Amino acid sequence: MANAGCGSPATILFLFLFQAALQKGAAQYPVVSQNLATDNVSVVEGEMAIISCRVKNNDDSVIQLLNPNRQTIYFRDMRPLKDARFQLVNFSENELRVSLSNVSLSDEGRYVCQLYTDPPQEAYADITVLIPPGNPIIEARDEVLSEGNETEMTCTAMSSKPAAAIRWMKGDKELPGKPKVELTYDRMYTVSSRLAFTVSKEDDGVPVVCIVDHPAVKDFQAQKYLEVQYKPEVKIVVEFPQGLTREGENLELTCQAKGKPQPQRVNWVKVDDDVPSHAVITGGDLYIENLNKSYNGTYRCVAANAVGESYDDYILYVYDSRAGEGTPRTVDHAVIGGVVAVVVFAMLCLLIVLGRYFARHKGTYFTHEAKGADDAADADTAIINAEGGHTNSDEKKEYYI
Ligand SMILES: *[C@@H]1O[C@H](CO)[C@@H](O)[C@H](O)[C@H]1NC(C)=O
Ligand SMILES: *[C@@H]1O[C@H](CO)[C@@H](O)[C@H](O)[C@H]1NC(C)=O
Ligand SMILES: *[C@@H]1O[C@H](CO)[C@@H](O)[C@H](O)[C@H]1NC(C)=O
Ligand SMILES: *[C@@H]1O[C@H](CO)[C@@H](O)[C@H](O)[C@H]1NC(C)=O
Ligand SMILES: *[C@@H]1O[C@H](CO)[C@@H](O)[C@H](O)[C@H]1NC(C)=O
Ligand SMILES: *[C@@H]1O[C@H](CO)[C@@H](O)[C@H](O)[C@H]1NC(C)=O
Q1: For the segment 344-386, what is each residue's pLDDT rounded down to a tens digit?
Q2: DSSP for residue 215
Q3: Going by CA atoms, what residue is nearest to atom 14 of ligand 1?
Q4: Whether the CB of 254 sits within 6 Å of ligand 4
Q5: Does 219 score more than 60 pLDDT?
Q6: Which residues line ligand 6 (CB under 6 A)?
Q7: Does Nucleotide-binding appear among the keywords (predicted)?
Q8: Is residue 141 helix, strand or coil?
Q9: Which among 314, 317, 319 is positioned nearest to 299, based on CA atoms?
């Protein structure tokens, strides 16, 4: 017996007899026992699962492990089942530990640890097989984007168990996607998520990452760098002069334009007018010699690309050739002008106040006389009342002035 192999006919016969005897002796339903413990197992397809049956207080009872079809995988340290993927890891008085390699979906189910006591005790280990999704794939509706336009992307994780979850990141910001879960004919889940957002110029070169969360995989993601076109940003820089633009001086402006695609050229125009005929335009530079007041106006640099057109304006204001030098005199004039204005204003105010005083004095008197006449029973009373009103109006007059 001791030399007999695990699957030998002798062992099988022994097991059969032993089990028959036990079943007869303890013809009760098994009970779920506190004395027997095991754990559920989640395992990735193709990998190894470990099933451990543990006994707390062993009284030398026989222990065995059954598969979901209630066939004996291990009887003590013997394996009647021919599937060599099952191997004994440990057999001691407190544990029966068995490994199952190259797990497949058909291995899923409820495994039973059984202890031959009276009644028999059982504990259940559910094996769940996880199937990782295929590599996530990002499909973008648009290859090249334009600022301000809405775009759409879809990320798909095929055939997993259980269903995967998909998250989106744009740069370091998480964006919400719209998930869709499909159950395929082979009872696998295919999950896709749709992301829509409005593209901005800052998105250029930023990665959009589709992250797949699934218990069978780690750091599973796909990414796509955004390529965003945007219209030019235009800026006029004054190269010369640094101070006031005076008659007779020269003016030099440079136009800087940056866009994607980069604008081929920039254009100088004068708003509502022609650029002075002797102005020199080379590339982005505008050069005008010998400024003249008739050149006043708005000079505009325009740049365009496939996305659109932008411009920047420079307002030229040609000052007298002496402007700036005679500043103190200008200020004197301004101060004198101001003082004169204040004096004139003060006199006007005085005139208005005086005019109002005379007007009000008369008006008030008249009003009170009329009022007194209304209220009074006779003419005498009316006059007394009117005089009272007069006194009041005197007080009022003082208040006003
Ligand atoms: C094992 O999983 C089943 C469901 O499949 C659950 O009812 C049971 O409580 C789990 N057992 C343990 C020990 O987690
Ligand atoms: C089995 O487990 C027991 C207790 O956990 C340990 O002492 C023993 O060394 C193990 N045997 C093997 C072969 O791993
Ligand atoms: C694992 O099992 C699958 C079938 O489920 C089989 O095709 C494959 O050859 C096995 N791999 C190993 C390493 O045994
Ligand atoms: C962006 O949107 C505008 C209208 O909204 C459209 O005319 C243009 O073709 C779009 N650009 C791209 C690159 O899709
Ligand atoms: C400015 O231009 C006008 C004509 O455009 C011309 O008559 C005038 O002489 C010019 N003044 C100076 C200072 O060049
Ligand atoms: C140009 O601006 C100056 C201000 O220094 C003004 O005196 C002059 O009248 C303006 N000329 C025209 C044509 O607007």
Answers
A1: 667 876 777 677 765 665 444 443 433 434 444 444 444 444 4
A2: T
A3: 40
A4: no
A5: yes
A6: 293-294, 296, 317-319
A7: no
A8: coil
A9: 314
- Can you give the pLDDT at residue 358? 59
Chain length of the chain: 401
Ligand 6 atom closest to 294 (CA): 13
Atom from ligand 5 closest to the CA of residue 290: 14
What the block records as the tokens of 279 is: 């102005």
- The closest of 212, 399, 235, 395 to 302, measured between CA atoms, is 235
Q: What's the average model confidence in pLDDT over 329-347? A: 60
Nearest-ligand number for the alpha carbon of 50? 2
Look-up: residue for tokens 């200008």?
A: 330
363, 352 Cβ separation under 8 angstroms: no
Q: State the pLDDT at residue 334.
A: 58
User: Of all atoms in ligand 1, which is nearest to the CA of residue 128?
Assistant: 5
> Residue 5 class from Cβ within 10 Å (0-12 exposed, 13-18 middle, 19+ buried)?
exposed
Residue 240 has pLDDT above 50, yes or no: yes
Percent of the chain whose predicted confidence (pLDDT) is above 70 = 74
Residue, of 263 and 4, whose pLDDT is higher = 263
